[in-house]
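Case 498 in the screening queue. Each case pairs one protein sequence with one candidate compound; here the compound is nicotinamide-adenine-dinucleotide. For every case the pipeline is the same: read the inputs, emit a complex structure as tokens, and attach any notable structural observations.

Predict complex for case 498.
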Amino acid sequence: MATGTQTFRNYIGGEWVDAASGETFESTSPADGETIGVFPRSAAEDVDRAVEAAKAAFEEWRLVPAPKRGEILFDLARVLEREKPALTDLMTREMGKVRSEAGGDVQEAIDITYYMAGEGRRLFGQTTPSELRDKWNMSVRMPIGVVGAITPWNFPIAIPSWKLIPALVCGNTVVLKPATDTPLLAERFVELMVEAGIPAGVVNIVHGGGGTVGERLVRHPDVPVITLTGSRETGVAVLQSAAENLKHVHLELGGKNAIIVMDDADLDLAVEGIVWSAFGTSGQRCTAASRVIAHEAIYDALQSRLVAAAERLRLGPGWEEDTDVGPVINQAAVEKIHAYTKIGSGEGARLLTGGEIASDGELAKGFFYRPTIFGDVDPQMRIAQEEIFGPTTALIRVGDFDEAIRVSNGIRYGLSSSIFTRDVNKAFRAMRDLQAGITYVNAGTIGAEVHLPFGGTKATGNGHREAGQAALDVFTEWKSIYVDYSGRLQKAQIDVAG
Ligand code: NAD
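Case 498 output:
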């Protein structure tokens, strides 16, 4: 696989094909504008073909024994391990994140694939006694059908894998629509699935925009499950479009995550955790720490250490070994992040560092933004309420623990949360009272592991979870089965006498 002006295709029903219209778009590197590849700009008719192929393949795939499906996924995990260095390198170019983080993204895919492959020999249901004699009761997980998977660009391999792998082990087939900013990584992922032995039609990929390919997938009557990771606004639109067909819709949306630093915290550890959580992946993580809630007793000390640490970070292309912070994804992202800097200053927050587009030397070729910290931020300011999705964080001063919890919870989102404290009582109260799908104690807001449920409360989603056993609930339906071996008609709730 070479990159550059090479043209890539959709994968539908076991064949690599162009968009029916023949139209294309380019993927370029956010670090230097290099062309990564040319991809089909698909439309509704391409989606329809992919859904038809996936629907036909479902009839066979659902009957493949789950342990066998798991074995194919074990093979895929080994292929992904082999390809980890190449995928990592490609990710630093196409998406922009630094090499160590790109390796972590690929590792997440490897981890979920091994984990879910094992699920092929579990997929447990339940057996339970009947209220009647000579009757057997059980519940089993059933695959649902064609899954439409719509993914963002910030975890270009990990997020598709978190959706496709559990969907497949459960016996569903998939049509993947990846983000247009990272099509090659998704394409490579599908290529490797084919190499591992996933049969034709079971996995399909259709490249193109959200308003065309995504929208058609969401509205298609033969796609009963939609799994989307993206912004809150996209989630609302998808939920509305899917309502007509009463689809299962799984949404993983935005965040406005906070790290609380109490007066008894290990400040050096807290600074490390904040820098990693606020500026890792250039702040483009749904779990990024875009707020820091600091107890007034340590606020000044924390602020000065944090600013010094942020100013030591080196910007550059992800593939250079000494880069700490890579580019943001595109021009629109730079503009949005910079607009929030102006909003923050306009609202009266104090710009402590950063706040500008970085364009010196080679950086001018890409989309770089300086790590930005605002101080004296009021919890109600827009920079403390809205998802910026860039390397910007807001320092908020609080007087005590209860206020810290209130401020942390005082947003529409509920994805990740964190507290740095040495007080075990405060840690446990925070674990109980923070309104978020994830809480870390003495760690930043990022660092999820694949065998635990991942997702958020409130406007971060609609109550489902990705990864872990919870993912199986998205991709299966429960069927309850009653087997009566009494040889007579027994009526539940009516023939109650033993
Ligand atoms: P986005 O919402 O712009 O796009 C996500 C995907 O949805 C893309 O593939 C896009 O083409 C598609 N899409 C857009 N409009 C659509 C429509 N009307 N119908 C169907 N599909 C449509 O998000 P993005 O910019 O790619 O990613 C950033 C967002 O994703 C942030 O809000 C971030 O917090 C969120 N995110 C959430 C999680 C999580 O697990 N909660 C993880 C990563 C990213």
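Case 498 observations:
- Residues 135 and 484 are 4 Å apart (CA to CA).
- The mean pLDDT is 97.
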